[in-house]
Structures are given as C-alpha cells and as structure tokens.
TrEMBL record:
<dbReference type="InterPro" id="IPR011994">
    <property type="entry name" value="Cytidylate_kinase_dom"/>
</dbReference>
<feature type="domain" description="Cytidylate kinase">
    <location>
        <begin position="6"/>
        <end position="221"/>
    </location>
</feature>
<dbReference type="GO" id="GO:0006220">
    <property type="term" value="P:pyrimidine nucleotide metabolic process"/>
</dbReference>
<dbReference type="InterPro" id="IPR027417">
    <property type="entry name" value="P-loop_NTPase"/>
</dbReference>
<dbReference type="GO" id="GO:0036430">
    <property type="term" value="F:CMP kinase activity"/>
</dbReference>
<keyword id="KW-0808">Transferase</keyword>
<dbReference type="GO" id="GO:0005829">
    <property type="term" value="C:cytosol"/>
</dbReference>
<keyword id="KW-0963">Cytoplasm</keyword>
<dbReference type="InterPro" id="IPR003136">
    <property type="entry name" value="Cytidylate_kin"/>
</dbReference>
<dbReference type="GO" id="GO:0005524">
    <property type="term" value="F:ATP binding"/>
</dbReference>
<feature type="binding site">
    <location>
        <begin position="10"/>
        <end position="18"/>
    </location>
    <ligand>
        <name>ATP</name>
    </ligand>
</feature>
<protein>
    <recommendedName>
        <fullName>Cytidylate kinase</fullName>
        <ecNumber>2.7.4.25</ecNumber>
    </recommendedName>
</protein>
<keyword id="KW-0067">ATP-binding</keyword>
<comment type="similarity">
    <text>Belongs to the cytidylate kinase family. Type 1 subfamily.</text>
</comment>
<dbReference type="GO" id="GO:0036431">
    <property type="term" value="F:dCMP kinase activity"/>
</dbReference>
<keyword id="KW-0547">Nucleotide-binding</keyword>
<dbReference type="GO" id="GO:0015949">
    <property type="term" value="P:nucleobase-containing small molecule interconversion"/>
</dbReference>
Amino acid sequence: MKKIIVAIDGYSGCGKSTTAKAVAKVLQYTYLDSGAMYRAVTLYFLRNNTDLSGNEEVKKALKNIKITFHFNEAKGIQEIFMNGENVESEIRGMAVSTYVSQVSKLSIVRQAMVDIQRRMGNEKGIVMDGRDIGTVVFPDAELKIFMTADTTIRAERRQKELLEKGEKISLDIVKQNLESRDKIDSGRSVSPLKKAIDAVEIDTSYLDFKEQVSRIIELAKERM
Ligand code: C5P
C-alpha cells in the first residue's frame, strides 16, 4: 500500500485535531498539528512584545524561534516545544487564542511555517490539520477533508477543553473568539481558510466520533 498525505482543514473548534490524531494512530502515520505551530509563534511574540507591524522585527523574531515536536510516551500524544520548552499547554490558553489569527495572517510567518510543514510531509505517511493544508501546503494531498460544525456546539466543546485546563471562560467569550478567528482566517489575503474544491466535507455537529474517524480511514484506504 502506498503512503499518502491526509489534509484536514476547517473552522476553529470542529474537532480537527482530535480526529486527525485518531486517524494517524489507526494508519500508523505521523500527526502534525499545524495550528500548534502558529500558536507557539504567537506565544513567543506575546512574551517578547514583538511589534507585528514591523516586518524586520517579525523576521528577526522568527529567526529566534525553533519549533520541534516530541512524542510523549506516557500521554500517548505529540507535544510541541518552542526553543526546547514544552509549551503544549500554554499555547491552548485564551491569551494565545485571542491573538493567534493576527499573527497567522502575516505572510512571512506563514512562509516559515509552510516550509517546515512541507519538510515534515516530504515522505508522506502524515496526517496534518489546519486551515490551508489542502489548499496551499499540500495541494496534491491524496485525501482532503474539510470539517465544519455548528458554532454553539464548537464553543461548548472548546469551553469544556479550557475548563479541563483550569480556565473558566463564559460560553459567549469562547464563541466570540471562535467566530472572530474564523472571520480573520477566512478573510485574510494570504492562504485564507477555504474548502479545497476536491475536499470531502464532513459536518461533525451530530456525528459520533468513532463514525467520523472510520469514515476518514475508509476514504484514506481507497486512496492508498
Ligand atoms: O487549529 P488551531 O485552532 O489551534 O489554530 C489556531 C490558529 O492558527 C487559527 O485560528 C489560525 O489563525 C492559525 N492557523 C492557520 N493555518 C493553519 C493552522 C492554524 O492560519 N494551517
């Protein structure tokens, strides 16, 4: 069977990462959370008060950021490190979520991230989730999925995740953040979030998680 690339794109909080992780596990493929990379860069910029309007400043800051992924055997998950520090938990908080779409609309940030993503997918056998994976990063991916879900359902799921991390945020605020990110991500001039013409759309609002994963596995196997 040949190795393929599975690209999963979609709106914020649709369950892309959880789905992508589960698909990668079944296929014994590498999983890459491209959103985590934009989040790690955002965290660095926040900590260093990087001025986003200064191209040179952003460029310089990007040179100081080294992003790596390491598999945590105990937790069975891939975790992201920024300059050697495990930032997996911190990047998921509201501070980064509020700011990340402003950072990810910058073309020099995108170029740097896309280069790393393409290198990681070089040998195929990868499941990558994000906003532009099927349209820009891997336009030739053998399988492209576009995930959607009702906004209130997405906000409830996200609120629960934040609560599990100890952040108690009202449903309205979480919903506003998702909507605002979707708006910026879909409206930006570089690599906007959109469904690739050859992507299979999956609405996860009322889908059983196992069903969702098996549907993607089935589609992947048809393309191997
Ligand atoms: O996937 P996640 O919600 O963690 O992504 C956080 C943010 O990173 C998105 O709202 C978007 O601004 C940005 N992103 C992106 N392109 C990707 C993945 C994420 O612009 N491929």
